[in-house]
Amino acid sequence: VIPKITTMLYFALRAKHVPPNVNLCSKHFIQQLFPPLPILPNSTRVEMEELAKHGTTYPPEILGLLEEQVQELGLKDDWGETCVPSGGWTLNKDPVGRRNGKQPTQEMQNVITKTIEEAKARVSKKKVEANQCLTHKAIQETLDILRGATMIVYPMGLPPHEPIRLELENNEDLSGTQASAEVVDPNLAQLWFSGKEILRGKKMKDFVGNNEKTKIIVKISQVGKGAPGREPVMTEEERKQLMLQEYRRQEELKKLEADDDDDYHNAAWADGSTLKRSFQGLSNISWRPK
């Protein structure tokens, strides 16, 4: 499974890690570059947040049914009775009816939320800005942290149909879901650099030369879907600074328009008696005690 690289998520490749004579776009190279390991997607983060609020999901036979329909059919959430959060739970019904409403205690909720924030920081794109590589080991450690948090909150484990468990075990079926669009088959993966397609069979030196200290940004897309989106010209911080400078300039222009043409008369250099007062020693007189 290869995560799709978009403008919000990209990987920086260093030529010193990839020799210039490496054959790019080969299946073996892509699988080495992006090993088959899931990365925390937004769907997993949302599911864990929902787990902290409304408990585990209903089994497939109950999912989507009203309470009256469940009672009429005689269905029961056996896994919900077995997989209960540690320390007890309070009822907090899921407004969309996907989860059983068994909300963990506040302490257990804090365990989940803190773990989510830590996991997001470990795989954040800010690591690229900090010149830190995202390694296979770091991803595995992040998954272990998430798995450990679920084991703390749910000592009996999560139900086998729970999306979080399926995601952590890399067994989730993404067919027919929006998340399936974020996955690229290694056989259909295509690398892009500087808005140009890196053709299969070429070598890295054909694009970046023989300088082993060159740093490039490579994106992945699916064959036949065109080039990925370009990076923004300015970062979010640079854009904010530019807007702030423009705002200040506009405020200065407004003040200049509001001033009268003879406003300079109030300036010290326009006072005709300044020289006279300086000879008489009357300048810089203050009535305040020193």
Task: Describe the SSE topology.
Elements: E1 2-3, E2 11-14, H1 27-33, H2 42-54, H3 67-73, H4 78-82, E3 89-91, E4 102-104, H5 106-122, H6 126-129, H7 136-153, H8 163-168, E5 183-184, E6 189-193, E7 196-197, H9 205-208, E8 215-222, H10 236-258, H11 274-280
Helix pairs in contact: 2-5, 5-7
In short:
One of its GO terms (biological process) is regulation of cilium movement. This protein is of the alpha+beta class and 290 residues long. The protein has a domain at 37-169.
Describe the fold and architecture.
This protein is α+β, with helices and mostly antiparallel strands and 290 residues long. It has a domain of 133 residues. 38% of the residues lie in helices and 10% in strands. The protein contains 11 helices and 8 strands. The strands form 3 sheets. It has a 4-stranded antiparallel β-sheet with strand order 2-8-6-7, with no helix packed on it. It has a two-stranded antiparallel ribbon with strand order 1-5. A two-stranded antiparallel ribbon has the order 3-4. α2 runs antiparallel to α5 and α5 packs antiparallel against α7. 17% of the residues are buried. Pfam families: CFAP298.
- Head-to-tail CA distance between termini: 78 Å
How is the quaternary structure best described? single chain
The best one-word shape is extended
**Radius of gyration from the CA trace?**
31 Å
- What is the helix/strand order? EEHHHHEEHHHHEEEHEHH
Class per helix and strand makeup: alpha+beta
> Tally the helices: what do you get?
11
Order of strands, widest sheet: 2-8-6-7
Main beta sheet strand tally, sense and closure: 4 strands, antiparallel
InterPro entries: CFAP298
Family: Belongs to the CFAP298 family.
GO biological process, one term: regulation of cilium movement
